[in-house]
Amino acid sequence: MTSSERTHASKFLSLVLRHQPEVIGLRLEPDGWVEVNVLLKALHQHQRPWSREDLEELVHTSDKQRFAFDAERSRIRAQQGHSVAVNLDHPVRNPPEFLYHGTAAQFLDSIRREGLRRGERHHVHLSAETEITLRVGARRGKPVLLTIRAGDMQRAGFTFYLTPNHVWLTDHVPAQYLVFPDVS
Ligand code: HQG
Fold first, then answer.
1. Which of 164, 162, 131, 168 is nearest to 148 (CA)?
2. CB 127 near ligand 1, within 6 Å
3. Which residue's alpha carbon is at the smallest distance from atom 28 of ligand 1?
4. 91 lies in some domain
5. Same domain, 71 and 104
6. Per-residue model confidence as pLDDT tens digits over 5-22
7. When you count CB atoms within 10 A of the terminal residue's CB, does the N or C end of the chain come out lower?
8. Are residues 140 and 73 in the same domain?
């Protein structure tokens, strides 16, 4: 696949494995897995005749490791970001003192009022690194980097989960734990 074909295919795979498996007639297992053979067959039936090798290439080249095979390599799932109900069982971890979230300037008023909400996703997505976060914010407008007082949240009883691809997840970040950039 060329790089642009891969991007296109990766977006479609995200749609199927995170949001709408039914567009190709699939159902995910409760923990998000689907049999690779079943997935490939369903893709074939919907004008996407991908090979097993195409799928392997998508999994291995995804910049954010969006997808993973199970240990036997017979099933595949998205590592996070679902809107369909799945139970991913990510481990609970103590976060670093500060985490980051990239957003866009037009959301700031709302975030100051409500804190960070998970929206369509299962969790709010946070990162220990600032660089990736700014790119995430830039997808939606003028990027703004928010700092989360994650250590204080954790000591106050909030739970954090860590995905295999180093995304920190939590249910909600109340505004009092956010540090906003100085916009004066
Ligand atoms: C914003 C990508 C108004 C939030 C990335 C964000 C990430 C609020 C947008 C992953 C708000 C939701 C997740 C509030 C939050 N009022 N706006 N109270 N609280 N927002 O895409 O974090 O490419 O659902 O700041 O790498 O941007 O999918 O979440 O701008 O890890 O693999 O509402 O998506 O990965 O947007 O991105 P999203 P996100 P993938």
1. 168
2. no
3. 81
4. no
5. no
6. 999 999 999 999 999 999
7. C
8. no
Q: Are residues 164 and 115 in the same domain?
A: yes
Amino acid at residue number 126 = L
Instruction: Domain of residue 105: give its range.
Output: 99-179
How many domains in the chain?
Answer: 2
Separation of alpha carbons 133 and 81, rounded Å: 15
Torsional sign, CA 57, 79, 122, 127: negative
Does 103 sit in the ligand 1 pocket, CB within 6 Å?
yes
136 lines ligand 1 (CB under 6 A): yes
- Residue 184's pLDDT band, with cuts at 50, 70 and 90, is very low
Same domain, 107 and 55: no
Q: Whose CA is nearest to atom 27 of ligand 1?
A: 136
Q: What is the CATH number of the domain that holds 137?
A: 3.20.170.30
- Going by C-alpha positions, the residue among 183, 68, 39, 64 that lies closest to residue 135 is 64
pTM confidence score: 0.84
